[in-house]
Amino acid sequence: MDKLKVAKHREKRFMKRRAPVLDLGALSDEISGLSKAGITDLRERWKTLYGREPSGHIGRSSLIRVIAYRLQEGAFGGLKPSAQRILDRVCDGRGEVGQEGIPQRRASAGTVLIREWRGVSHRVTVLDNDVVYRGRRYKSLSEVARAITGTRWSGPLFFGLKRRAKEAVRG
After folding, report:
1. What pLDDT is attached to residue 144?
2. Domain end residue (candidates: 45, 66, 97)
3. CA distance 27 to 18
4. Domain count within the chain
5. Which residues pair with 123 in a beta bridge?
6. Pair 17, 82 in one domain
7. What is the pTM of this model?
């Protein structure tokens, strides 16, 4: 086996999920010690963990974060196999395949959206290429949201078709 294959094999073996390490104090000490290490020591530690030299463009703070993540990953286990498969598909350029199960929330023609804003109920009817609000046509829900609030809003977010980033992460 050439060096590249050995490094990839080592990396795959390291990435597998593992049982938690019992000595959390040692792990904590090792991670906190990274901030005191010099750039040369950090690059050596990277090489030990990843089997290859880090890019010269990676700064000290990034080295510390990535090494700390790898140490925790080794102690607590890596990604679930299903999550790893999705990431592998994305890396292979098949990112669309991994998103098949994520439904897109869209309003089709004829949908009536109702949103209460400051005690007033606002009703919008979705058409094929535009929307109707109070008898007037608008090009997008964002234009309607701006007419209602007086500020720039994402129309789909304002009308509940899109979740906020925090909500999407938390589920």
Report:
1. 94
2. 97
3. 15
4. 2
5. 114
6. yes
7. 0.42
Q: Specify whether 12 is located in the same domain as 38.
A: yes
Per-residue confidence (pLDDT) for residue 171, from 0 to 100:
46
Answer for the pair 71, 29: CB distance below 8 angstroms, yes or no. Answer: no
Query: Is 60 part of any domain?
Result: yes
| Residues 6 or more apart whose Cβ sits within 8 Å of residue 14 | 49, 70, 73, 74, 78
Which amino acid is present at 12?
K
**Both 48 and 89 in a single domain?**
yes
Burial of 124: CB neighbours in 10 Å, binned 0-12, 13-18, 19+: buried
- Find the domain containing 123 and state its range: 112-170
* Residue whose C-alpha is closest to residue 17's, from 95, 100, 70, 76: 76
Domain assignment of residue 107, yes or no:
no
Longest dimension (CA), the chain: 72
- Listed residue (20, 42, 40) closest to 31, CA to CA: 42
Same domain assignment for residues 14 and 84: yes
Q: Quick one: pLDDT at residue 98?
A: 46
Question: Cβ contacts of residue 67 below 8 Å, gap of 6+?
Answer: 34, 42, 45, 46, 49
